[in-house]
Amino acid sequence: MVFFSRIDLCLYTQKKKCEIILGSRERMSEESCPLPVMIFFFLDLNREIYITEYLSAVLNCKVEPTPCISLNMEGLEKTDTIVYENLSKFKGEVGNSPKLVELLSSGVNIFVNDSFSQSHKMFVSTVGITRFCYASLAGFHFEESLYKLRNASGTCR
């Protein structure tokens, strides 16, 4: 399973090559990945349901919202993409709780950090989960933000 730390960029699905635009982000397109996707993002649950319906239609695959994090993932194993609610609502997220890390990392093989603005913080969703993943990668948005930061530091007035 692939863990994405943001939802407003490209998603990888088992079904097909995907190309989506969410928000004001530029269009991203990537080849399909043979793994399901787990997405965490910072929206309310009501909005999450709308987002999952939209993603299901755009990606032509099953996208399910889940309001909680649990070891019991019954019914979700047939889902290509899982969308969780705002992780900042969990007190273990900020404290890098070992229990929350264990729950989130269950079944995750690859971590994609695409949240540049959160990457310096010791959160479960940015640091803790990486200890249990086969690979940890920077996403497109992360790389773009890093590139802009490097260019800004070289600019003279």
List the helices and strands and how they pair.
Layout: E1 2-4, E2 18-20, E3 28-30, E4 37-40, H1 45-59, E5 63-66, E6 81-84, H2 91-94, H3 98-105, E7 110-113, E8 135-138, H4 140-154
Parallel strand pairs: 1-4, 1-7, 4-6, 5-6, 7-8
Antiparallel strand pairs: 2-3
**How would you spell out the order of helices and strands?**
EEEEHEEHHEEH
- Mind telling me the CATH class? Alpha Beta
Q: Tell me about the biggest sheet?
A: 6 strands, parallel
Unreliable stretches (pLDDT < 50, length at least 5) are 7-36, 41-45
By DSSP (H or I, 4+ residues per run), the number of helices equals 4
Mean pLDDT: 63
The helix content, as a percent range, equals 25-40%
Our estimate of the beta-strand percent is 15-25%
Shape, per Cα inertia axes:
globular
CATH superfamily: Phosphoglycerate kinase, N-terminal domain
Strand order of the largest sheet: 5-6-4-1-7-8
Question: Might you state the CATH topology name?
Answer: Rossmann fold
N→C terminal distance: 46 Å
Strands, total number: 8
Radius of gyration: 16 Å
How many domains in all? 1
CATH architecture assignment name: 3-Layer(aba) Sandwich
Decide which structural class fits the backbone: alpha/beta
InterPro entries: Phosphoglycerate_kinase, Phosphoglycerate_kinase_N, Phosphoglycerate_kinase_sf
GO molecular function, one term: ATP binding
Protein name: phosphoglycerate kinase
Cofactor: Mg(2+)
